[in-house]
Amino acid sequence: MTRTTMMISILAAGAAGVCAAPAWAETLPVSAVYAAEQDAPSEFQTIVVERFDGNEGTKFALALRNAIARARIDGEDYFEVRRDSAPGEDAGQTAWINGTAFTEVERLQAGTTEERKCVRRDDDDKCVQYRTYTYSCSELSVRFTGEVQMLDAREELAYDRSFSTVDSKRYCRNESSVPSTSDMVTGMVDRFAWQVRRDLAPIQRHEDIRVLESRKDMDKPLRKPFKKALRLTKSNWEAACSEFERLNKAQPRHITLTFNTGLCREAVGDLDGAEELYDLTLELEAGKDYPTAGLSRIASRRRAAEQLAIHYGEPEAEHLADGDRDPGKPVRDSETAEGLSSASTS
């Protein structure tokens, strides 16, 4: 069984259960694989995360290894992640990552704060005398800098990213807690490791995207069935989409019906049809963010198709991520919950 055939089986099985699940708002489900930020890493199957120099090098290398290892498509690891090169592995499909990671910590004076407190109460426990206390304050500043480089078997640079960021927290002597340098460093390390992971691998994501609900300028005979279609999005989005398609034919160029029909096309993977309707939505009302966001998703899915075809060595036309499916047979990509515990997916 080829990987493409296996993905079809996985996605079709997932669609049967997911499509029946009720939504709790007027939304349509869009599940897809979206592109990595960088194209070059697509050719590699194995990533070797080597030693990082710097006082946070060990910590960052571990966070990066874990972040890349969480990149999955249809439940399968996108990369094989290792600490060292394996004997006899295909060097042409392997990349080596190393770099630096440093932190610098400063504690600076940061003025004062005042707090008014009751110092005497009467017999009824009512405050009759206050005093203002002044407390000194400090600022904990952590700078995180470094670089990540990916080299291929010829030791040529395939990917490079530098980073420099500062996180600061102010605290005063009257506060019960003091910022933790360790917690601040961990947060910065994890965030940047996640950014590198997004550069290297596509992300599989499920979203519930809101339909438009405005009936302004809609023909009167269409308003009642339109309200019915909106209600159907909560229980049977496929039936709702059938109704949106019918209403859009009855009144072409209505912005709500045009966009909702485009979103339906996107949900079933008809990217060409969705793109055409999103473009028309922008023609009807320029500058709106919702069709622009839809066009951005479509562009990312198409780019992801190219990346996946390179990564798995398959013809692009055969790969599911391009969305060229039969619009009458909704097939949804399975949701993958990836990402840092502080953020959330890929």
Q: What is the fold's blueprint, element by element?
A:
Layout lengths: L2 H16 L8 E8 L11 E8 L3 H13 L2 E2 L2 E2 L2 E3 L11 E28 L5 E25 L5 E16 L8 H20 L2 E8 L9 H13 L4 H14 L4 H13 L3 H14 L4 H24 L34
Parallel strand pairs: 2-5, 2-6
Antiparallel strand pairs: 1-9, 3-4, 6-7, 7-8
Protein name: Tetratricopeptide repeat protein
Organism: Qipengyuania polymorpha
Keywords: Signal
Key traits:
346 residues; disordered C terminus; Serine Threonine Protein Phosphatase 5, Tetratricopeptide repeat; five-stranded mixed β-sheet; 2 domains; alpha/beta; TPR-like_helical_dom_sf; Double Stranded RNA Binding Domain; 9 strands; two-stranded antiparallel sheet
Task: Please explain how this structure is put together.
This protein has helices at 3-18, 57-69, 181-200, 220-232, 237-250, 255-267, 271-284, 289-312; strands at residues 27-34, 46-53, 72-73, 76-77, 80-82, 94-121, 127-151, 157-172, 203-210. Residues 1-23 and 319-346 have low confidence and may be disordered. The strands form three sheets. A five-stranded mixed sheet has the order 5-2-6-7-8. Strands 1-9 form a two-stranded antiparallel ribbon. The longest helix has 24 residues, at 289-312. It has two domains: 3-35 and 205-322, Tetratricopeptide repeat domain (Serine Threonine Protein Phosphatase 5, Tetratricopeptide repeat, Alpha Horseshoe); 43-199, Double Stranded RNA Binding Domain, CATH 3.30.160. The protein contains eight helices and nine strands. Strand 7 (127-151) and strand 8 (157-172) form a beta hairpin. The protein has 346 residues and is of the alpha/beta class. The radius of gyration is 27 Å and the shape is flat. Helix 4 packs antiparallel against helix 5 (237-250).
